Amino acid sequence: MSLGRSEKQEPSATAGQMVLVVDDDRGLTRLIQRALEREGFRSTTASTGEAAQSWLMTQHADLMLLDLKLQDIEGPQLVERLVSAEKCPPFIIITGQGDERVAVDMMKRGARDYLVKDVDFLQFVPAVVRRALEQLDKERRLAEA
Fold first, then answer.
1. 88 within 8 A of 79, measured Cβ to Cβ
2. Sign of dihedral through CA atoms 61, 66, 72, 74?
3. Pairing mode, if any, of strands 91-95 and 42-46?
4. Rounded (10°) angle between helices 75-84 and 49-58
C-alpha cells in the first residue's frame, strides 16, 4: 500500500539511529552506508579497527556492522578491546564466505546477527539492522519496566 501525500507514515523506532560500518572495503562501506541512509538510519564508516576504536572513544553508535577481517586487526580482537574499554556497541558481524564458523563463535560473544557477503548481501543489510535495533529497543524498554 502506498501512502498518499496527506497520509503520514509513523516514524520507526529505529529511524535516525547511528550505525557504524567497519570494513576495509571502502567501496562496499559506501554502498552499505547508502542503503542504510535510504532507510532512515544515520551512519558513518571506518576502514580500520583502529579508526573504529578511536571513533567509539568519543562518539556513540547504536549498532556496529563489523567485518571479521580488517587489515590492522581481526574482528574478535577489536570487540575484546572495545569491551575492555566499555565502549562496545551492540554489533552484527559481516563476513566473507567461509567464515561462518567464526561468525557463529562471535554470536556466542554477543553479536546480534551475522551476514555473509554474497550477491544478495546489500538488499538484506537494512532489514537485519532494523530487526537488531528493534530487538535492542524492546530489551531496553523491558529493562526499564
1. yes
2. positive
3. unpaired
4. 20
- Compute the Cα dihedral for 14, 136, 125, 89 and give only its sign: positive
Mean pLDDT for the stretch of residues 16-42: 95
Cell numbers representing residue 19 in the block: 550505525
Please state, in angstroms and rounded to a whole number, the distance separating the CA atoms of residues 52 and 45. Answer: 8
Q: Around Cβ 39, how many Cβ atoms within 10 Å?
A: 17
pLDDT at position 67 over 60: yes
| Domains defined along the chain, listed by start | 18-144 (3.40.50.2300)
Phi then psi for residue 65, to 5 deg, are -95, 120
User: What is the per-residue pLDDT across 71-97, written as a single tens digit (0 to 9) for each?
Assistant: 999 999 999 999 999 999 999 999 887
